[in-house]
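Dear H.,

Thanks for agreeing to be a second pair of eyes. The structure we're designing against is below in token form, covering all 284 positions.
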């Protein structure tokens, strides 16, 4: 009887809260995730080159026609594609100001939300901080992120689409990083493609191995053997073959541990390499 009373009481509280609008919508990133944001392009104007990339981690295509992209203030645009606008299963879709690649910096934008009237069905990305909020047909916030500034000519990219993307830090973030990949006419980002954080970490680790060879901490044979494993892993990462990439990276760790045990590499240098490889594994 007591449990029934408590459940009924909680239901009444929830209904009353919804009625007065004090319960915020809860993001559901398992459906659609905001995966990359270009708020301040350098090679083209903001009106041409801004874009937002969505990622669908599910096994089914998701139609976002009729959904809304907005911020927390005046900007709000209802997507009206005239037909289904699908974010493919396990894939990406780019929304932007301009859907003409010859004008927008070389981006394949699937849908343009641009409206010259900023106060009518309009969405824009402010350079000094803004929000990106995705709302579905039931008025549920599917995903959102907030940034407090942009970087000129560089997109904010999720290190891993499974990470919490709610807040983009100005200088550093556990979830976001500044893209290193060049697209189109020279801005940096990976619109419509997998973000390259694991790729960047692998390349950095390969460079670290080269530095250890140059400094005499590893001999050339060791450096070649380890670099070869990492290069194979990098190729598999680029192919989205995370299983084989993981096997290769674990093989590299096993080799380093064997060298540490035999004294062929110092514990300090060996552990630094293992930590770097573990960071790659975490990014897959």
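And this is the sequence the design step returned. I haven't edited it by hand at all.
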């Amino acid at each position: 009887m007591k449990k029934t009373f408590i459940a009924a009481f909680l239901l009444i509280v929830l209904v009353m809260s919804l009625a007065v609008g004090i319960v915020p919508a809860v993001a559901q990133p398992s459906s659609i995730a905001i995966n990359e944001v270009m708020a301040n392009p350098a090679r083209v104007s903001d009106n041409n080159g801004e874009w937002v990339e969505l990622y669908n981690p599910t096994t089914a295509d998701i139609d976002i026609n009729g959904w809304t992209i907005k911020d927390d203030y005046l900007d709000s645009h209802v997507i009206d594609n005239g037909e289904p606008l699908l974010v493919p299963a396990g894939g990406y879709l780019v929304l932007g100001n301009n859907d003409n690649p010859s004008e927008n910096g070389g981006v394949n934008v699937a849908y343009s939300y641009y409206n010259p009237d900023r106060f009518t069905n309009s969405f824009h990305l402010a350079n000094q901080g803004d929000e990106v909020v995705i709302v579905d047909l039931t008025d549920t916030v599917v995903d959102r992120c907030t940034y407090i500034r942009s970087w000129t000519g560089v997109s904010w990219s999720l290190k891993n689409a499974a990470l919490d993307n709610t807040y983009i830090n100005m200088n550093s973030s556990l979830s976001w990083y500044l893209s290193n990949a060049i697209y189109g006419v020279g801005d940096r980002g990976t619109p419509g493609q997998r973000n390259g954080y694991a790729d960047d970490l692998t390349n950095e680790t390969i460079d670290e191995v080269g530095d250890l060879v140059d400094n005499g901490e590893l001999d050339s044979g060791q450096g070649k053997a380890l670099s070869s494993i990492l290069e194979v892993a990098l190729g598999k990462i680029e192919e989205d073959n995370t299983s084989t990439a993981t096997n290769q990276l674990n093989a590299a760790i096993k080799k380093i541990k064997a060298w540490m045990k035999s004294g062929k590499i110092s514990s300090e240098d060996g552990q630094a390499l293992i930590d770097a490889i573990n960071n790659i594994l975490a990014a897959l």
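Two observations from my side: The chain has six helices and 15 strands. The first helix runs from residue 2 to 20.

Warmly,
E.
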